[in-house]
Amino acid sequence: MALNISGINIINADIRDTSDAIRALLTTSLSSYDAATIGNFITITATEYASIANSLAYTTKLGMTDAQMGESGTGWTGYCASVLPSANSSVSAGSYIVACTMRNQNTTVFRPLFNTVHPGSNSNTSFTSISNAPTISSATGQYYLVRKKPPVVTANGFVGHVGGSTGTLASGTTIFSGSGVNNGYYACVVGANPPFTPWTGRNSTQPMVQWLICSTQQW
């Protein structure tokens, strides 16, 4: 591209919008991000996810730690909605759900969920989708997603997700145990669509999932 400013020719100038701090940290997935609808998730690379986690200001990790995400996991059959214990899934009003990584087995769809009531408080509460349900690879592995210009969370609540044959923490590694809101819950359905209810306690093994939560809008 050539520009002419006050008689000065600038040839092949690379002009990039840096007002969106999430976009500025993407490389391989930049075109997919630009094409996405605002508020929706797209798949990204592990390198891009790490860049967002490490460089996007005011961002923290929710759910599993990096070490827990590296553990060996088992899986189950069917589409299941999952919510971690409240300490691992609680999101405050005024924050932003920016990105996610998960360890899955043979999963072809990812659907992020949110509700103001944790299943440990009401097993019949119904979580709803907060964005699109992007298709991801059916091969076993770890997957990374980012949300385009995420909207603000308007009320305190809990984040969850839907996946098929989702990987869980195997016995002998990290154990989550408790009751009520201190436990994780699942609701398996015929398809990947809401409503997701009723909820059942997971009995210590939980989905391997991590969310990036930002407290300040930067896009």
Keywords:
219 residues; mainly beta; 7-stranded antiparallel β-sheet; 5-stranded antiparallel β-sheet; 11% helix; globular
Note down, in words, how this protein is organized.
The chain is mainly β. It has one domain (16-214). Helix content is 11%, strand content 33%. It has four helices and 16 strands. It has helices at residues 30-35, 46-55, 66-69, 86-89; strands at 2-5, 8-11, 41-44, 59-63, 73-74, 79-83, 90-91, 96-104, 111-115, 128-129, 141-147, 157-164, 168-169, 185-189, 200-201, 209-214. Strands 6, 7, 9, 10, 12, 14 and 15 form a seven-stranded antiparallel sheet that branches. Strands 3-11-8-16-4 form a five-stranded antiparallel sheet. Strands 1-2 form a two-stranded antiparallel ribbon. Strand 1 and strand 2 form a beta hairpin. The radius of gyration is 19 Å and the shape is globular. It starts with a strand and ends in a 5-residue tail after the last strand.
SSE inventory with pairings:
Blueprint: E1 2-5, E2 8-11, H1 30-35, E3 41-44, H2 46-55, E4 59-63, H3 66-69, E5 73-74, E6 79-83, H4 86-89, E7 90-91, E8 96-104, E9 111-115, E10 128-129, E11 141-147, E12 157-164, E13 168-169, E14 185-189, E15 200-201, E16 209-214
Antiparallel strand pairs: 1-2, 3-11, 4-16, 5-13, 6-12, 6-14, 7-12, 8-11, 8-16, 9-10, 9-12, 14-15
- Poorly predicted spans: 1-5, 8-16
> In percent, how much strand structure appears in the residues?
25-35%
- Overall tally of structural domains: 1
Which structural class fits the helix and strand makeup?
Answer: mainly beta
Number of helices: 4
Biggest sheet architecture? 7 strands, antiparallel
What separation lies between the terminal Cα atoms? 26 Å
Helix content: 10-25%
What do the pLDDT scores average to? 85
Global geometry: globular
Topology pattern, helix = H, strand = E: EEHEHEHEEHEEEEEEEEEE
Number of strands: 16
Specify Rg, calculated over alpha carbons: 19 Å
Which assembly state applies to the chains in this document?
single chain
